[in-house]
Amino acid sequence: MGVNCVISVPMEENKSGQYVITKLQKKIENLGAKKAGHFSVDCETYQSQIPIEGQVKVINNVHDTEYPASTFSFVENGPHLVADNTLDMLFAKMDSFYAPKKNFKIEAKGVRYELNDFLIKVGSVIIGQNTSVKGILLQIDYTPCILYNDSWGIITELLHILGINPNITNFFKSRLEKKESSVDYTDCAQQYLELFNSVRKSMTVNQQPPGMSSSPVMIQGRM
Fold first, then answer.
1. Do residues 6 and 169 make contact, with C-beta atoms less than 8 angstroms apart?
2. Is 2:183 a contact under the CB 8 Å cutoff?
3. 219 falls in which pLDDT band (50, 70, 90)?
């Protein structure tokens, strides 16, 4: 497990999401990268049905096909844990306490590539039952290194070669600011969750009538 960086790839004006994805995939393949299967990262959001300490609590359960036996569970503005995926069965049985938010499940899925010391993933983002592309996420793993600052230079170089602006998440930025910060198993899920929340927020803004503003989406942090 190395340092992973997940960023949002901008859509192009008057171009479909699939067009942008195909264009990026061709750039990656032209570098000599080989396809290595598919991947999926999803997030199911649960909301407490009974206020806890006077507040409605939100829990985000993230699943990553790189860790098929695990569930990464994040309490909004609170702690997080990594559990066996039987945690999802537990949530299904306690829906009178925590129920999934309807049409709120979000997923990024696409193709994995291997390029020397890099693992690269290009994923399209979909929400609920709607199959239209709501965003594009690019994940780059530099597998030989577990230190963020030691990896950032070579990750940035690859992003520039691909023509992608290294617009990193707040979570990744916080890791770079801690000089000897090393990677943790939950780091990738944290980045996806932050970007998923950004996509959800943009969808909420687009669906509101003119003159209305959306409620802020809180970014999950560590304990």
1. yes
2. yes
3. very low
